[in-house]
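[Protein data]
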Amino acid sequence: MLTLALRLGMTLQELRERMSAEELLLWMAYNRDSPIGDVRGDIQTSIVAAAAFQAQGAKVCAIDLLPVWRADAEPVDEVEEAEQGEQLFKTFLKAASESS
């Protein structure tokens, strides 16, 4: 939700007040197919950088050039991440219903 709020130029409070649960679900589905966050730019930049290095003979691939934002981060457990997303969505729905 933070990424979406940032992209739309809203605070989280504004996003909660103005966006329906249905629209949020649509944004979540869209994000799975076409990421709206900054990670997409990081991937695109690493591809271009890898191509430039490879043109000079370097043995490097794009994934080697992706920035690591948290060196202490553990590998992502996709099931756990999905459960956290579901809990966040439930919290969003509860907050939206309480403000109505």
The mean pLDDT is 81. The helical segments are 2-8, 12-18, 21-33, 39-55, 78-99. The chain has five helices and no strands.
